[in-house]
Specification:
The chain is built from 15 helices and 10 strands. It has 342 residues and is an alpha+beta fold.
């Protein structure tokens, strides 16, 4: 039985233990048979490898991308189709029965048991392997047709040489997914376009040289998260707040630091420090004048700033706050910079 946690179906402790044991046996056997163009949830493979694979296809002359989005993939997996693939690979009937029971265990939500007739819960250790097993059929079909592609979990991009070819591929592969794998393509989010118009795993590709850069949607989510962290001012010291910001920025930089177009990182650094100065100013409140003077701002400038009718965000660009709170003051707090010279 699985517990419902947000949008994840989280198995109980015993179920997780058993699933993990099954995974440790099946993954070493199944994984080597999967497509080399599949990168998600596989040992020794990563999202960055998928991006480099996509980049290689683009630089080989396949300059249009068929961006396919599977609608609620993990919730829509057909159990019969999946179990058909499991039976082909597992001869022990007890293991087959165990996997089927995991799929059909149901979800407990506030003491109410919901039957699961399709889907693989994202919170289960075995689900990623089972999803790759089913989508390996898609990979093999794409290989059979001679397509260039890169897939990471349910995020699949196919690379072609023309817009016309892309539209034809999108239509035919959508039919295949619907008829053969019983999966639905999200028509609103799937499209054919140039790589700088689409996104793949949080990145897009530039017009010249197909260089990696952070997509607009990923940058938007980044700013939303920073606003969330820097918007909570009550009951937290600046050092507590800086630690939370540090953890998020280091993780973001680790992933998106692979971007080859890094000029935008300087702008993000500048924007983050504006948020930090705005945060400081809100925390200082009425003692803003004293804090500015304490940090060496002249009496006249500190007075004019403290008496200004402008809000914290506008004042975060003021000469007084820039002098009182230079970039190195945030470095000393442990807030990392996104832009690092290579």
């Amino acid at each position: 039985m699985k517990l419902l946690l947000g949008y994840l179906g989280v198995p109980t402790a015993v179920d997780r233990l058993i699933q993990q044991a099954v995974l440790q046996v099946l993954q070493p056997e199944w994984d080597p048979t999967f497509s080399p163009w599949s990168f998600g949830f596989r040992p020794g493979r990563s999202a960055h490898q998928a991006l480099r694979c996509a980049q290689k296809h683009l630089r080989s002359g396949y300059g249009y991308v068929v961006d396919m989005d599977l609608e609620k993939f993990f919730d829509r997996v057909n159990h019969d189709k999946l179990m058909g693939e499991v039976v082909k690979r597992v001869s022990d009937g007890r293991v087959v029965t165990l996997i089927r029971r995991f799929l059909k265990a149901g979800v407990l939500d506030h003491d109410c048991l919901h039957e699961t007739v399709e889907g693989t819960p994202q919170g289960g250790p075995l689900s990623p392997l089972l999803s790759n097993l089913l989508l390996d059929q898609l990979d093999r079909e794409l290989e059979r047709r001679g397509h260039r592609f890169a897939r990471y979990a349910d995020d699949c991009n196919i690379y072609v040489k023309s817009l016309r070819a892309g539209r034809r591929v999108l239509e035919s592969i959508s039919r295949y997914l619907t008829s053969k794998l019983k999966l639905k393509v999200n028509e609103a989010k799937s499209a054919v376009g140039r790589p700088w118009e689409r996104k793949f795993l949080g990145f897009s590709f530039s017009r010249r040289g197909f260089r990696l850069f952070v997509s607009e949607s990923a940058e938007k989510r980044f700013k939303e998260k920073i606003r969330e962290i820097t918007g909570r001012t009550r009951g937290r010291s600046i050092r507590q707040f800086a630690q939370e910001l540090r953890a998020y920025l280091l993780g973001w930089r680790e992933y998106f630091g692979h971007s080859e177009v890094r000029s935008g990182f300087k702008e993000l650094d500048s924007w983050i420090r504006r948020r930090l100065r705005s945060y400081h100013w809100k925390q200082w409140g009425r003692r803003g004048y004293r804090e500015l003077r304490k940090r060496g701002v002249s009496r006249r400038l500190a007075w004019n700033t403290a008496k200004s009718a402008h809000g914290p965000w506008r004042l975060s660009r003021s000469p007084a706050l820039a002098f009182a709170l230079p970039g190195k003051s945030f470095d000393e707090l442990g807030v990392p910079r996104l832009y690092i010279k290579r």
